[in-house]
Amino acid sequence: MKIQDVLLSDYGKASSIASPVNQLMTDFAVDFRDGCDINLGVGYVNERTIPHQQIQHACENVLAHPKKYRASLNYGGAQGSPNLIESLRRFYIENRIGGITEQILNNRDIIIGANGATSLLESITHLLPAGIVLTADPMYYIYCNDLGRKGFRVTAIPEDEEGLDAERLRAKLKMLGDEKAAIRFFYVVTVNNPTCTILSNTRKRELVDIVTRLSYEVGRKIPIFFDNAYSDLVHDSAVEPLASALCYDPLGIVYEIGTLSKILAPGLRIGYLIGSKGPFLNGIIQRTSDIGFSAPLINQEIASYLLDHGIEAQIQKVNTGYYQKAKQVKAWMTELLGDNVQECRGGSAGFYYYLTLVNVATDTTSDFFKFLTRTTRQEAVDGPPGSQHPKVIYIPGEHCVHSDGEMVEVGKRQFRISYGFEELPQIHTALKLMRSAIAYSHENSLGYHCT
Asked: pTM higher than 0.85, yes or no?
């Protein structure tokens, strides 16, 4: 008798096929050549922003003070290290992060994820039943793809210069009619990934008001999660200080997800959630226990020490570095890409630019993409076998916009580049290659139309 393969759940079946971006980055990494190829697609922080010596010093101090940092190399509690939770409270209150006060935090809990902010986002999908999730378009493709694999129906609302468009959201809710009862939660990235559009304070308050009214309409609290992954990286002084959505939340439906990955080090895997006490947060804590007891306690204590010793200077250093890079990259894009760019978003926060080109496709089948990944099958363009010309990878807009949304067509001319990980000389080279890729695309387009 033939033995069948392992029986997979629906989620297992969906996960057995790599997501488009996962496959794209995997394919690129296989043949990646350090010092030659350029990765503007990866969302890594810049290595020079990671405080290596301070982390080493923090680790030594944690291990040297076992009375304060108890059993730091053992298992920890599922809510998180009491030291880290207290350090986060102090950091928020003393620095008035988002206008948060002690009174606001007294009515909320802070919990630490098992493995960074992503583990908290993933836990949400286990605690809430499948249904409709509303978010912005372009969307955070990694999480939205995961939601789809879990059986959620993602509905993406186009953003404008202030973030998720509130008027379009109201129109969508009206169109849903009785289906509004199937809405499970709202997911809003305050500095959007991929566009780095900053959610304005006015829009933030408006979104909380919309979801509050909707909660009363359907007769139950509908949570709205604000992903603040890049909120500490607002490096343009012209941007108004970002207010916390917790300040606008009389009903207790706002949850904010933060991370120390961007301002300290992704390898510490410290993500946290702030929200109203109750069954939902209790469920997140239990989920953390189920999947790994806690985040590594030594990492939590190191993060606590760093928050207590010089975090303000570290944040300033990180933002100064990204501001300088953003300014230089924008100047090069203007010089090298010029009128070929229809729209450019980003540059004031985070470390991404999101570009829309004029009459140039950027999807994985496009001439632009093939030129940069050296897959045109033309040796004059790609270089000789075994010694190809430098490759450049980016995130195509086709993967960033919702496949059933309003931005499908324009998404085919969009792409995200990161100025975080690679250094400026490599980014300059990549932009020059993009200029050549645009010229190659135009040449092929003219040749096609002539024939």
From this structure: yes
